[in-house]
Structure formats: structure tokens, C-alpha cells
Amino acid sequence: CSDVDFSNVTHIYSNSRAFVALKKDLGRVDCWGFRGYLGSFGDPDRSYYRQDCPDVHFSGVTDIYSSESAFVALNKDLGQAVCWGDQYFGGNCLGVNFSGVTDIFSTQGASIAFNKDLGQAVCWGH
């Protein structure tokens, strides 16, 4: 992690083989770890490296959650989230409605977004 800039970091999150640093700067994160656990495509080599996190704006992210090989960044105020990492184990949450989500829980390969106020949940992953 010697090539990661830790200035202005407010929180660090992890899964089994990768890390995400959420920075105080609006919309900034750093990711590092093994390729398959950060969502790197095209190169099956699972060697350590630093990469840019998904091409999204992280401004307003309230929490980041993780399964064994994926991450979810949640903006509770807007009811939006972005997922990245292993696509089969929680890194793909396209079509998931995060409106009103109060918590996210994860297992090794799946996640559940829970809306406590409505008593509803939605799951994705394996």
C-alpha cells in the first residue's frame, strides 16, 4: 500500500483481498488489492496492484459495504449505490432499487439491501 495516498482519508474498507479508502475530498476514493476483488477485467492475473475505483462520482457516499470479493458504495440520501468487484459475487447490482435502503448486509458472495421503514429487502450475488 506504499503507493496509496492516505491524506484526507476518512475511512478504509476491506474485503478478503482488497481495500477502498474513502477520502474527505468530495467524490474521491482509492482502491488497491487483488485484481479480481476490485473488478478488473481482461487480465486474469490476480496480482496486487492499485487501480482507480469505478468511473463514478462518490460524492455523498454514506457507507461502503463488502462481500468477500466485491464492494457496494451507498448514498442513502439519494437512494443510489454502485457495486464493483467480482461480478458473480455482489459486484453487479444493476437493477437493484436502493431507494430508502437503511442497511446492507453481505455474506461471502451475496448482499442484501434492507429498507427497515418498509420492511422490504432485495438480494443480489450468489
Word description of this protein:
By secondary structure, the chain is an all-beta fold. A four-stranded antiparallel sheet has the order 1-2-3-4, with no helix packed on it. The chain has a three-stranded antiparallel sheet with strand order 5-6-7, with no helix packed on it. It has a three-stranded antiparallel sheet with strand order 8-9-10, with no helix packed on it. A hairpin with a 3-residue loop joins β1 and β2 (18-23). 0% of the residues lie in helices and 43% in strands. The N and C termini lie far apart (30 Å). The model has no long low-confidence stretch (mean pLDDT 82). It is globular and about 45 Å long. The protein contains no helices and ten strands.
Short description:
By secondary structure, the chain is mainly β. The protein is built from no helices and ten strands.
State the main characteristics.
mainly beta, 4-stranded antiparallel beta sheet, 3-stranded antiparallel beta sheet, 0% helix, globular
Write the layout of secondary structure elements.
Blueprint: E1 9-14, E2 18-23, E3 29-34, E4 48-51, E5 63-66, E6 70-75, E7 80-85, E8 103-106, E9 110-115, E10 120-125
Antiparallel strand pairs: 1-2, 2-3, 3-4, 5-6, 6-7, 8-9, 9-10
Fraction of residues in helices? under 10%
Output the structural class. mainly beta
**Treating each run of at least 4 consecutive H or I residues as one helix, how many helices?**
0
Instruction: Please state the CA-atom Rg, rounded to the nearest Å.
Output: 14 Å
Structure summary, number of beta strands = 10
> How do the strands line up in the largest sheet?
1-2-3-4
Element-by-element helix/strand order: EEEEEEEEEE
Shape: globular
Mean pLDDT: 82
Largest sheet: 4 strands, antiparallel
What distance separates the N and C termini?
Answer: 30 Å
Low-confidence stretches: none
Share of residues in strands:
35-45%
